[in-house]
Structures are given as C-alpha cells and as structure tokens.
Task: inverse folding
C-alpha cells in the first residue's frame, strides 16, 4: 500500500504541472456505418431467425472457467469464453465484442434500437446481421449477439464483455490492473507502476496487464482497480472526505 501511495503522490505532483491530454484514435467500423446498416434499406436477412431458436452455446460450458463468477451476465460470459476457447478464437471474439459495444456507445439510435424492448427480436437480429456483413466476425460472436438479443439481454453487454475479458486474462495467468490518472503517465511512471504492482500485488507466476485510463475529474493522484479491489488515492477522493468531515462538523455544531 505504501508503494502505491508513493505512485499516487507522484501522479498528483505531475497533475499540478500539466493537464495536456493525448487522444488515441480507434479503428474498425464507424458509428456512421453501423447507423446506415441498421436504419437504411438493406438486403433481406439471409438466414431465418428460426435457426437461432436453439442456444448455440448449449453444451459449451463443460470447460471450467478459470475464475468463479456469479449472476446472469457471468453465465453468458462463461459460455462465450468456453465456446471461444474450444474454437481457439479468444482474442478475435474479445475484439469483435468490443467493436460492437463501441458502435453501440457511439450511436444513440443504434443503442436505442438494440435496447428497446418493443422492437421485435427478429428485427434486432436482422439489424445485427447487417452490421456483421459490413465487417468480418466469427460465427461465435454472431451467435453470441443473436442469443443475447433473443433473451433480451443486450443491455448487459458491457458487463458480459468485461467478465469475458477477465476470463481471457485469467486463463493465461494474467491479472488486469486498471490505473486511472488525471493525465497520461510518463513512460517512467508507467514502468514504476508495473514494477510496484508486479512486486507487491501479483502472485508468483502471474503476469501483469496494465490498463491506464484518463479521467480529468479525479484532479490528481491515482485509482487502482485490481479485480474486485478498488483503491482510490485520487485528489477528488480526498476532497470528498474533507467535505464529509466538514458536513459532520457543521451538523453537530
């Protein structure tokens, strides 16, 4: 904990000197192409919805997930991980699922179309199929989205995707650590984070996967998310603590 605190203090010092942010561009299908694929006329759905009436993941959960998870979203994540593991397309599926979620987050109409419970399932599957035709997707990814649509679970996609990625990392002996900073970390700071986390947090044989997120709202310091552990060493958290103490003091006066 002391080592993480030193890293957080160093980030605070850096944050007070600069708030220059670096924009990282994405790739893949654009939000515009997703919108056009769903909301403009397109060739009729080539495959009947009836072919997806049976769960394509049925019987794929015999592989024991490397991490125990609970809840409905975990069930879908485990089934997807099992199917992708058998087909040896773990990374492909992760990339494809993230791509569709990115499109969904970037297009309000596309998102509303998928989440609207009044839209018939057949229409949602037709819309998804048109999006899939605009790029290259594995059958496992396609069937996963079709089943999620059929079962009315598309709103749970972000959680399922997050849990799936955790299973992918765990199956390789990797541990995902997300570090949130107010500004981009310098190469030296990032290397120091990796060193401290590897020495103080990871178990023997585990490999670190570091994900750095930028959130200017935290003002400075760092936030560490390691599995279910959330360690908030941000300036924002300190300010909230001071505000709460002041409220308590005023309330008791």
Result:
């Amino acid at each position: 904990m002391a080592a993480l605190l030193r890293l957080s203090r160093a980030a605070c010092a850096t944050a007070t000197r600069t708030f220059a942010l670096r924009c990282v561009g994405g790739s893949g299908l654009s939000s515009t192409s997703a919108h056009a694929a769903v909301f403009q006329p397109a060739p009729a759905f080539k495959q009947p919805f009836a072919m997806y009436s049976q769960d394509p993941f049925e019987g794929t959960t015999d592989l024991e997930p490397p991490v125990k998870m609970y809840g409905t979203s975990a069930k879908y994540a485990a089934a997807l991980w099992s199917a992708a593991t058998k087909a040896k397309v773990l990374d492909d599926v992760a990339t494809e699922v993230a791509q569709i979620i990115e499109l969904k987050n970037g297009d309000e109409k596309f998102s509303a179309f998928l989440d609207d419970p009044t839209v018939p399932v057949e229409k949602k599957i037709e819309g998804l199929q048109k999006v899939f035709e605009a790029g290259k997707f594995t059958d496992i990814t396609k069937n996963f989205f079709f089943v999620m649509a059929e079962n009315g679970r598309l709103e749970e996609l972000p959680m399922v995707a997050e849990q799936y990625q955790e299973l992918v990392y765990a199956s390789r002996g990797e541990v995902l650590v997300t570090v949130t900073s107010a500004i981009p970390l310098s190469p030296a700071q990032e290397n120091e984070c990796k060193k401290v986390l590897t020495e103080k947090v990871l178990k023997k044989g585990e490999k670190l996967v570091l994900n750095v997120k930028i959130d200017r709202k935290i003002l400075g310091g760092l936030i560490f998310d390691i599995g279910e552990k959330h360690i908030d060493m941000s300036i924002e958290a300190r300010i909230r603590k001071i505000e709460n103490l002041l409220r308590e003091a005023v309330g008791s006066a």
